[in-house]
Structure prediction request, 297 residues.
Amino acid sequence: MGDMTVKTLEGRTAAPTTEPSASPTSTEPGRTGFSARLRGVRVPRRPRIWFEVLLIAVSYWVYSLVRNAVPEQKTQALKNADWIWSVEHHLGIAVEQSVNHAVNSVTWLIVGMNYYYATLHFIVTIGVLVWLFRSHPGRYAASRLVLFATTGVALVGYYFVPLAPPRLMNGGGFIDTVLVHHTWGSMASGDLKNMSNQYAAMPSMHIGWSTWCGLTIFALASAPWAKILGLLYPTATLVVIVSTANHFWLDAVGGLLCLTFGFLVSRAWYGALPHHLPRLVPTRRRPAPPPRNNPRG
Prediction:
């Protein structure tokens, strides 16, 4: 049993045999190499500020370019708005017009909402990205992927479901609050309306982005007041988009569906939701140097 050789029938000895390795490295080196590279790409890395600024700038430029290049399809967009409005009446949630008229009667409130709609959509989203970059670098890439996937799938909705906002409906009785109060900044009304696709209301990225911000803050912030503000932000945004007659309730539902898709994409790529990943980027340990031979034995 202790012999390392095997006697053959002819009495000769054969070299000891070994079992083939079960490791896929020896049988499928190409596949193993690809898997290793794929795992390496999926591991969160420390974000580089110059790359992130460039990536976000280029991504938003492409998003705006594609969104505004979609044919406006005014006739179909108005038909879709009438259909959405009738569905909401059937569901008993068609109160957007009442909210729009009630809030418009309070000048200081509606003017504040107009500026809220025009500015916080970008300011808060960029602020949350900067906060993640500085305080949660290990979760930054996964959270950013949620936002990018959400925005990307929204472009599909803009292309296939052109939708007029309530303020542009024929005979809808809605008030375009930017035109009435001459407030600045909205790309959807006034002097800047020709720079933006007026019939891309479904889904609402004001809701998609604000809910991403709110959930991110709620999941990762340590201060209770910050968590509360995180939940209030998308709630306030919903009130604003309806009060200013820029969206229907169901546009907000479309934004939430896009956000759900974004979280699923990030979960599939990184293997966990962003808030379940380590806060800091794991450091890569360098392999220990081989021991030096002692010439003196």
